[in-house]
Design goal:
Strand content: 35-45%
CATH class of the largest domain: Alpha Beta
Low-confidence stretches: 1-34, 40-53, 443-450
């Protein structure tokens, strides 16, 4: 019975109190044995998750404690043909359940039993009887499991009967159950390649979805509790809820049969027709969430593109759903409020800015606690689509089902060739479970069987985890409860563990490995807090680390970054429009801009423009410095500001944490964050032009107006903003609707009342006014046609430098220049100047008159235009002669009208003067005229 007490001690470490019962072995057997019980962890949750156990594993052993787990042992195979198992809940007022032989997926409220090979026995040996309860035992309740009629191979050498185990379930209440709807796009475009630049072979968006979604079912198998619900809605032109019975498609997530039915339905989906995100969300609410009593309601929304069919997610319902979703709740779906449901979008594939903004705003408006995630697919070496999606589902489910104490500690990809390969991780003193997910980044190409793995514990023990490993859908998921009882000893969790992949001669296996640890004390939170970042705006990244609620200090936190080489708006604006018809798999093409995008992606040469690149790492610090966005030092909150988002696109942050605490020792954490950065247009760089003006016979005037919005870095916002961009006139009526010219510009025609009409023209993008000008001030307008000539007058002061400054003091500087503009941004100038200097020692002065020519570069076309210039000239000093010199300077033009500006300027001049160089500066104010 001492060994039995050790088993009880193990369960105490799990915070599940075991009251030891008795084992009865046959007195007639020449080699009597015992059956040792331990609470079955495979579907169990632990005290840190506020739940009780679900069943028991019963291992067969000899009286001396040695395990019966050797192939060929005379006691094997174990015979349960006449065995019976009962579970008694609360013996004082008993509920007795007779278990079903041969099943480990019992119906809710029932139980089943069957033989499995022992957790650490060779795969061919069935040496463990598993008893599974279809639910959680009530809290603070005595539970008895009785087994009768189990026999050895010959029926006499080993016989057990009347064995009984009794335990007390946890007094802690289970966590609140959750409801999860998977709302997945199965439109025709899902047949498109997930990674057009991939060197790893073709991978469709649909296959990436199916492969990654297996993690949902596998994780639910280990961490779901009674009351959890799971549903599936697929959408094309319209949405379909799977298996609506009794008014709901939300099924019992603890029931493996229900999970497998949903898995089978998803795996059988084929891409077809159009994309109605709004109907997918509507059906999920109507067929599942309406009437659901769970407080936490979550949608995983997967789509590869912008919606193109009503009802629209957002307001209003417009053709092709060209609507902008507000970040302010509630989200509107077909005009109806979508409340109390968090929608967490995840996207794959390449599309334009409004579509990405839509997804990111859906997340914000519905309060999804995790990030909006886009699977990076433009890595030229290998696709990240499946790995990014698998990571997203894993970290989202870990947070949803357990919270911030079940966290990713390793998330890596690697390759197994003919030699063994291992990955290491640090586990901690108070870890209560270890979960390992193994998949292939290209699951459709390489069978998982090529990479079984072993565990090497910190004490060197080699463990075969296959008996507690689920392998379905090309992915394996293993959960081991800690501390681990193995062959009469307790293996404590703290220390370095190894996951060992044995090499197979001649075989290659690419793997994606995710490791999760559940710790009773350690908690972390990873977040980005910029709701709608624009190019150049800082993106705050924050990691909060605590142990038992107290901050953890002295930790290393580093974010590895990937971002776009080129902005989508720039690519679409500058690239010629290819001819042809893209393959959409029957999906609707929303616009000519989308057609252009799809054709560019089908050509490998132009598809290379969309590739991503590695960016410098970002270190997060807990130093209280505003420069890295940290508000207080040593509070366990580590902060960083990423300011390098200069191009439109997705920026991927892999945040890695390494630290140590006195209670838990060395620990590590990792998390994937994803942020879409859009180009926000600014007035200074947005060109608003009058293309034509034609007087009509009735005296009205038809004007054609063009707008080309650009951001602060002169990036195009690009095509495909119809419905998100307007050119408004304060007078007149629209003659020709707004047209996307596919080069970053948009055109519209208005009929104005008369030739003297001068309405205000306003450009707004995404609901924000960008620029507003009178018609007369537009480029090409009556007062703003492009004028090549300019004249400026300047006055200010000279400032001598070096030896020149030792003799002379500042004096007056006067000048004028004549400018000729080749473009808005480049011009040449001829400058005539007169500069005077006062003698420090005599009542005298010295002056220079000079004529210079220089090139001038102007930045921007708005009302404020900085410029730089440089040139050479001839200098005529007092007393005669000619000297030569150079100058360089800068100015800022403040245009008060299209043809008049105020211009402060600075110049530095160096003049060759009798074998030495005379150096001085001028600081002037001036006015500039265009003509």
């Amino acid at each position: 019975m001492n060994w039995m007490r050790k088993i009880c001690s193990r369960e105490l470490l799990l915070a599940l109190v075991i009251v030891c019962g008795h084992t009865a072995s046959s007195a007639h057997s020449p080699n009597p044995g015992i059956m040792v019980g331990s609470l079955f962890p495979g579907d169990a949750t632990t005290a840190s998750q506020n739940a009780g156990a679900k069943g028991m594993d019963l291992d067969f052993n000899r009286d001396d404690g040695s395990a019966i787990e050797t192939a060929g042992d005379s006691n094997l195979p174990i015979d349960i043909a006449t065995a019976s198992v009962t579970i008694t809940i609360n013996p004082a007022a008993p509920t007795i359940i007779n278990c079903d032989r041969g099943t480990l997926t019992p119906e809710p409220g029932r139980c089943g039993f069957n033989m499995i090979h022992g957790p650490f026995s060779p795969p061919e040996v069935n040496a463990t009887l598993r008893v599974v309860f279809g639910g959680l035992f009530p809290a603070s309740t005595n539970v008895q499991i009785a087994v009768n009629g189990v026999r050895s191979a010959d029926g006499s050498s080993f016989s057990l009967s009347g064995s009984e185990w009794e335990f007390l379930t946890s007094a802690m209440a289970p966590r609140a159950p959750v409801s999860l709807e998977m709302v997945f796009d199965v439109s025709g475009s899902m047949a498109g390649r997930a990674a057009p630049l991939s060197g790893c072979g073709p991978l469709t968006r649909m296959q990436a979805l199916k492969d990654a979604a297996q993690s949902i079912f596998n994780i639910l198998g280990s961490y779901t509790i009674p009351g959890d619900k799971l549903g599936l809605v697929t959408f094309t032109t319209t949405a379909t809820a799977f298996n609506v019975v009794g008014g709901t498609n939300l099924k019992d997530a603890t029931d493996a049969r229900q999970r497998n039915a949903i898995r089978t339905n998803l795996n059988g989906q084929m891409p077809t027709a159009a994309t109605s995100i709004g109907d997918g969300l509507r059906v999920a609410k109507a067929s599942g969430f309406d009437g659901d009593t769970n407080t936490t309601k979550r949608v995983f929304l997967f789509s590869d593109g912008e919606q193109n069919t009503v009802p629209c997610a957002g307001e209003p319902n417009t053709p092709f759903c060209r609507s902008t979703v507000s970040t302010t709740p509630p989200l509107l779906v077909g005009g109806a409020a979508y409340e109390s449901i968090s929608v967490c979008p995840v996207t794959v594939g390449q599309f334009t800015g409004p579509a990405y903004t839509l997804q990111q705003n859906i997340k914000t408006a519905t309060g999804c606690p995790g990030p909006y995630v886009h699977a990076i697919t433009n890595d030229p070496s290998c696709p990240r689509a499946t790995t990014d999606l698998t990571t997203f589902f894993t970290q989202s489910l870990a947070n949803l089902l357990v919270g911030d104490k079940l966290e990713l500690v390793r998330d890596v990809t690697g390759r197994v060739t003919g030699t063994d390969k291992s990955e290491k991780l640090s586990a901690n003193t108070n870890d209560v479970s270890l979960s390992i997910l193994v998949a292939s980044p290209n699951m459709g190409q390489t069978p998982l069987a090529l990479a079984p793995f072993r565990l090497k514990a910190p004490d060197g023990t080699i463990i075969d985890p296959s008996p507690v490993t689920q392998t379905q859908g090309g992915m394996s998921f293993t959960t081991i409860r800690l501390p681990l009882f193995f062959k009469g000893k307790v293996i404590k969790p703290q220390g370095e563990w190894e996951i060992q992949f044995p090499g197979v001669p001649g075989a290659i296996f690419d793997y994606h490995l995710i490791v999760l640890l559940d710790n009773e004390n350690l908690a972390s939170e990873f977040r980005t807090s910029n709701v709608d970042p624009g190019t150049g705006e800082p993106i705050p990244i924050t990691v909060e680390l605590t142990e038992d609620g107290s901050p953890i200090t002295g930790v290393t936190v580093v974010a590895q970054l990937v971002g776009p080489e080129n902005g989508v708006g720039n690519i679409l604006s500058k690239a010629p429009t290819p001819s042809g018809t893209p393959n959409t798999g029957g999906d609707t093409i929303r616009s000519e801009a989308q057609r252009k995008l799809l054709l560019l992606l089908e050509d490998p040469a132009s598809a290379a423009l969309f590739r991503d690149k590695t960016l410098p790492s970002l270190v997060l610090l807990d130093n209280g410095q505003i420069l890295n966005g940290d508000t207080a030092a040593n509070d366990g909150t580590y902060s960083g500001l990423f300011t390098g988002a200069l191009q439109e696109g997705h920026y991927r942050f892999v945040v890695n944490v390494r630290g140590s605490t006195a209670k838990n020792g060395d620990f590590q954490r990792t998390q994937l964050l994803n942020v879409y950065v859009r180009p926000k247009p600014v007035a200074a760089n947005t060109r608003l032009a009058l293309l034509s003006s034609a007087v009509q016979p009735d005296g009205t005037v038809i004007v054609r107006i063009s707008a080309t919005p650009r951001d602060r870095f002169d990036n195009f916002i690009g095509p495909d903003y119809l419905g998100h961009l307007n050119i408004r006139s304060s007078q007149g009526v629209v003659v020709t609707p707004l047209t996307d010219k596919l080069d970053g510009s948009y055109e519209i025609s208005y009929r104005l009342p008369s030739a003297s009409s001068n309405p205000d023209i306003t450009v707004d993008v995404m609901g924000t006014d960008v620029v507003k000008k009178p018609l007369s001030d537009l480029d090409g307008g009556p007062s703003s046609s492009f004028k090549r000539w300019g004249l400026s007058l300047h006055g200010g002061s000279t400032f001598p430098h070096g030896f020149f400054g030792n003799v002379f003091d500042p004096g007056v500087s006067l000048g004028a220049d004549l400018e000729y503009r080749f473009t808005n941004l480049f011009s040449v100038e001829a400058y005539l100047g007169h500069d005077r200097f006062k003698n420090q020692f005599f009542n005298d002065s010295f002056h220079l008159t000079h004529l210079s020519g220089h090139a001038k570069f102007t930045f921007g076309t708005g009302t404020v235009r900085p410029s730089v210039h440089a040139g050479l000239g001839a200098y005529f000093p007092e007393g005669g002669g000619t000297r030569f010199g150079g100058n360089a300077g800068a100015s800022v033009q403040f245009w008060l009208t299209p043809n008049f500006a105020i211009e402060p300027s600075y110049n530095y001049r160096a003049v060759n003067f009798s074998g030495s160089t005379l150096k001085y500066s001028t600081l002037q104010g001036g006015i500039r005229f265009r003509f």
